């Protein structure tokens, strides 16, 4: 038992036929009291807070490394009072980040490289709305990996995936490295990634470190990570350890803003041979009807033509059964030149005209 922000505040201990409930375990002392009542031995608390803080930090670093966030993983590892084990881990992560001899202000050279990252060429930037743009990138580097490893008897598992972009912003509060890490789910397919192309739909935030850098610098080359799993499909419900497997009759997707980019990946797994170029186990495919509720600001409506096409294909495996678009009031920040922002009414009107002409789509405006 221990103090953890994410732990439940009650424990049930079975001792013979006795079930005892212990609630409001909100401190290390309370945890020790429970352990003493159950076992008869009170655990020592000397240095317990420090040990638990180290364990939480180690767990956070483990997760950061698993999703290829090297800057995030290095945060706090450079403490002069760190243990020898932490210093050894620091050197290991620094080497993966491309700094085997210590951090500098410059990005690692392509020759040294960054573990699990490759450089992509930024081919074009297309404004979609006044808030969002489509970034098209390409790469011929075979080390870019694949979202769906296969071969040698390995059949791909359906999943959604993302890539991490390194924004070269220089010194920052997120870690000691000269970049910040941001995850983006591509609009393009895994098949296109394997061909060396990717489309990223990115919303620009006025105070966003990564998006402001992208919009301002328009870099010729960008570091992207190999694909990282986001969600197992159709693992929307846990599989039972025994008994029949639960199969949902339908799936309701609640998405907002640029979160709409996850939908293409889900739909591609409903028809993997045509959409992705390889088969997956039929019992792993999300073949039940999908109902979509998408919320967007009226000045930042995204993927309208794609939404309309998915609605038209509603009776097929590649489409959605229904779509509800919720339009909320637009934000009106000034443009970069200080002039008032243009109205998003035309985009919202286009979305309404396009979707309301379809029998399985509707548009609602909220306050």
Automatic annotation (TrEMBL):
Alphabetical list of PROSITE patterns matching this protein: FAD_FR
Region (Disordered): 136-156
Source organism of the structure: Hemiselmis andersenii (Cryptophyte alga)
Start and end residues of each FAD-binding FR-type domain: 115-245
Protein's name in the database: FAD-binding FR-type domain-containing protein
Recorded GO MF terms: oxidoreductase activity
Top-level taxon of origin: Eukaryota
InterPro entries reported for this sequence: Cbr1-like_FAD-bd_dom (IPR008333), FAD-bd_FR_type (IPR017927), Riboflavin_synthase-like_b-brl (IPR017938)
């Amino acid at each position: 038992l221990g103090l953890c922000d994410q732990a439940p505040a009650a424990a049930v201990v079975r001792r013979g036929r006795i079930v005892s409930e212990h609630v409001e375990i909100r401190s290390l002392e309370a945890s020790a009291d429970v352990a003493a009542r159950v076992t008869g031995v009170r655990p020592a608390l000397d240095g317990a807070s420090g040990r638990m803080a180290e364990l939480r930090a180690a767990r956070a670093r483990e997760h950061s490394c698993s999703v290829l966030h090297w800057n995030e993983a290095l945060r706090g590892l450079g403490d002069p009072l760190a243990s020898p084990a932490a210093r050894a881990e620091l050197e290991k992560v620094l080497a993966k980040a491309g700094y085997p001899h210590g951090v500098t202000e410059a990005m690692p050279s392509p020759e040294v490289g960054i573990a699990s990252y490759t450089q992509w060429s930024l081919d074009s930037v297309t404004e979609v709305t006044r808030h969002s743009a489509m970034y098209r990138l390409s790469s011929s580097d075979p080390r870019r990996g694949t979202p769906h490893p296969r071969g040698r008897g390995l059949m791909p598992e359906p999943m959604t995936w993302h890539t991490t972009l390194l924004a070269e912003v220089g010194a920052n509060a997120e870690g000691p490295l000269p970049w910040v890490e941001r995850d983006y789910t591509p609009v393009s397919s895994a098949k296109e990634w394997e061909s060396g192309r990717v489309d990223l739909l990115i919303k620009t935030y006025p105070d966003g470190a990564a998006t402001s850098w992208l919009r301002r610098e328009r870099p010729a080359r960008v570091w992207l990570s190999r694909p990282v799993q986001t969600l197992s499909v159709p693992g929307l419900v846990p599989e039972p350890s025994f008994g029949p497997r639960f199969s949902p009759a339908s799936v309701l997707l609640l998405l907002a803003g640029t979160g709409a980019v996850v939908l293409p990946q889900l739909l591609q797994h409903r028809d993997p041979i045509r959409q992705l170029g390889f088969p997956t186990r039929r019992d792993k495919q999300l073949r039940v009807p999908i109902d979509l509720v998408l919320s967007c600001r009226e000045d930042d409506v995204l993927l309208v033509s794609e939404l309309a096409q998915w609605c038209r294909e509603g009776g097929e495996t590649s489409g959605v059964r229904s779509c509800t678009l919720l339009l909320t009031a637009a934000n009106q920040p000034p443009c970069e030149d200080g002039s008032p922002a243009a109205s998003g009414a035309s985009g919202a009107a286009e979305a309404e005209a396009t979707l309301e002409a379809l029998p399985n789509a509707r548009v609602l405006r909220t306050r």
